[in-house]
Each structure stands twice: as structure tokens, then as C-alpha cells.
Amino acid sequence: MTNVSAGTLRRRPAQRRSVERVERMLDECARLLDEVGYEALTTKEVARSAGVPIGTFYQFFPDKQGLVRALALRNLDAFLARLTARLGSAGISDWTDAVDLAVDEFVAMKRTTPGFAIVDFGEVLPTPEGPPLKGTNRLLDAALENNVIVADRLRALTIDLLGAPTGPGLDRALIVAVEAADAVLKLAFRTHPDGDPDLIAECRRLIRAYLADHLPEL
Amino acid sequence: MTNVSAGTLRRRPAQRRSVERVERMLDECARLLDEVGYEALTTKEVARSAGVPIGTFYQFFPDKQGLVRALALRNLDAFLARLTARLGSAGISDWTDAVDLAVDEFVAMKRTTPGFAIVDFGEVLPTPEGPPLKGTNRLLDAALENNVIVADRLRALTIDLLGAPTGPGLDRALIVAVEAADAVLKLAFRTHPDGDPDLIAECRRLIRAYLADHLPEL
DNA sequence: CGGTGATATGAGTGGACCTCATGTTAAGCC
DNA sequence: GGCTTAACATGAGGTCCACTCATATCACCG
């Protein structure tokens, strides 16, 4: 499983106490996101709520965006873990079942995981930072393409489970599918607090119609 | 045509001079977005570049987000105007042509319109502001669903041009299509400065496959 | 137990957003 | 034209936030 500290933390927490502190800060970040939204979220309040001095906050997180990026990464891990578990237990007969499970799991997390309604794991909010077109030395755009990680994982899982044909076309198709699904589901949750059921249904149709083109066998 | 001042401005510029100032501020906002990105954009610098005192800036725009929202609205107007023109001139035989034109126009604007690469007209950046779930009196979430306006307009245009069957199902389908297309095209431009051609092609396939389900005739 | 490097802390610095008291212009009226 | 009144313009300054860094504390080991 990926780790939250992959490229997002300044220092990896070594001792037990530090690990717990980082975890608490992420918990409070998620809680405060639900409470006040992204713009009004302050690093000071996150630190205070977690019972951690502000200096320590900056020992681990480079800035506010790094904090949110780390939360997105943790959400990604949780999502993949839950999805893997369900794909393993429930018997999957074809890829449409996998799509349904993924959508179900995403919706469930939107409803129950703190902060997930505001920050899931897709494109991290307002363009990572700094000049977006100038220099090419953005080495930390890892989080930018979390959806690529999801696509990768879905590919591995589905190939495992039903021996789909691999190839660069499939990779791209899965990335596109994840990106589109993420957008439509976000819309569903902007419209309706629990996710507009009609829009969720349309999301499934969208993904199925598209993937049916790329996975002709079935 | 919609107007930039629809719900986003504090005061509507009445005199000629004021209109020009607002326009200049939006121009500079777009230019600076390309130059430094969203996070590093400052109201002071926008005002300074536009040759306008900071106090005047706040006469018209409620805050930084309002500025960006107004730019998104202006982009929306421009997009719809250009699309309408091209849909009118070029002969459209079926709806797939309309989809292609819309995608083409979006891509063209991503490449040439200042700031459009950073802020097009979709969901306006980090959740409009304030508590997102609490009160229901957010009266200015107009900009939140700019894509709904696009969908509306596309519906009107296509119905006009080829007499498609209207209905709530079609409305929702178009909104979903626009939302998904927006997401995939944004991905295409995050990946590649001029827009990854393969991803743009996939965007067309995605929309066609989905809409083919909803527009069974033809 | 002294030394050495890692870790912890929070007052302080710079800077961004936004206001508001004051100055300036325009408009109506006799 | 003079006078009154209201709309508009301005930028110094208040407030708050992100982030730093000098100092303190701890962990480990010879």
C-alpha cells in the first residue's frame, strides 16, 4: 500500500508519538474541512485542534496544500484498500461488476468519511502551486495525478480477476474513465448532499458505454 | 448573452471608464493566472497591473474568488458566442458534429485565450467559500454550475438545428456529458501543454458513446 | 555523565486581504 | 453661476494567516 509520506511530507515521523501526531493532524484537517470548507481552513487551527504546536506542524507538512495533499493520499489508500477487499470477497463475473463496486465504494466514502466530501483524491484543489507552465522542475506533482494511480490499481485488479487484455490503450481508457467518473460523482454530490441518485446512475451508464468500446469482449 | 455582473460584482460599472477598468482588471487577472498560477495571484498585483487603486478593485469585486468567478463567467460568454457562431455557419448534419465543434472550440480557447488554461468556466476553484454544507442561503452559487449553463445552451442549439427530442432525461445527459468532457479535457491539458491529442480523441469517444445511449435516433 | 545530533517549540516576520475615513467628482436645484 | 447632496475614488493601515528560526529539550552513546 502506498504511504502518506510519499513525496508530501518534509520529515517522515519515526517515533510512535510523531506518527500519532501526524495522524491526528490529518484527522482534524478532515473534520475542519467539513466544518469550515477549504478556504477557511487554517494551519494554526489544525495544529491547535490536534494539540500540536504550530512549529511541529511545519516539521511534517510543507504548507497548507501539502497537508491537504497528504489527506488526499490517505483517502486514496483507504479507497483502494476497501475496494480491494470488496473485489476479493464478492465474486466478480465481469468488468461491469467492478465498475459498480468502485462507484459504490466511492459513494459510501463520500457519505461517511470525514472531509471526503470536500477533498477526495482527485486533482488536488487549486493547481498545486507556483508557475504552472514555466519551469519543468515540479518534482512533487505526484498528487496531481492520483487518478492515474487509481486507474493503475483498477487495471491490476481487473486483469487479475478476469484476464482482460492489457496494453497502452486500456491504460488510457481507464484513466479517462476514472477522471470522468470522478467529475460526474463530484457533480452528484454538489447537487445533493447524499449524492443525486439519478446522477450516480448516469455515471454508471457513462462509464459502461465508454468502456464497452474498449473492452469489446464480454 | 449573459453578463459578467450577474451575481458576481458588488457594483455594476455604469460609466464608460468604470467598464473599461473592470475589463482591464479581468484581462490582467487572466494574464497573471498564466504567469504565476492561481495561488500566487494577488488582488494587489491585479489592481496594480490594471492601473487601478486597490480600493477601486474592491468597489467592484467582493474578493479574489469573485474576481476569478467573474473571469470564468466572461470565458463562458466568449465560449458560447464562438460556438454559436460556428454552429450557425458550418452546416451541421447530426449531433456528433456539434460535439466535435464544441470540443474543438474548447481546445482552441485552451490554447489561445489567456488564463483559460488555468480557469475555464467549470466548477470554480476551491468550493466557493464558507461552510459548504450548513446553511442553505448560498444565493450566489450561480457560478458553481456554469456547466449547467453550457448544457442548457447546447441543448437549445442542437434542438434548434436538428430537432432532437427534448425532456428531463436529455437535460441531465447533456450536463453529465459537459461535466465529463470538461474533466477529461482538463486532464489532457494538465498532461500536455497543447493538450494531449490522444486524450482529446478519447474525450470525443467518451461523449459519443454516452450520448448514443440517450439519442437513439440516427 | 558530558557530548552530539535529532527533535520540539512558539514568538516573531512578512505579506495578503480587505476596510473605511477622507478626498474628489458629478448631479440636481434655485 | 453658486449651493447641496449624493455617488464614486483612493490608499494608508488593521487584522489575520502562512511560515521561519533561534533557542530549548530530548535521546542516545562512549
TrEMBL record, chains A, B:
DNA-binding region per UniProt: 42-61
Residue ranges occupied by any HTH tetR-type domain in the UniProt entry: 19-79
Keyword hit for DNA-binding: yes
PROSITE patterns in the cross-refs: HTH_TETR_2
Keywords assigned by UniProt, alphabetized: DNA-binding, Transcription, Transcription regulation
Domain of life: Bacteria
Matches recorded under Pfam families: TetR_C_22 (PF17928), TetR_N (PF00440)
PANTHER family, per the entry: HTH-TYPE TRANSCRIPTIONAL REGULATOR RUTR (PTHR30055), TRANSCRIPTIONAL REGULATORY PROTEIN (PTHR30055:SF151)
Protein name in the entry: TetR family transcriptional regulator
Taxonomic source organism: Sphaerisporangium flaviroseum
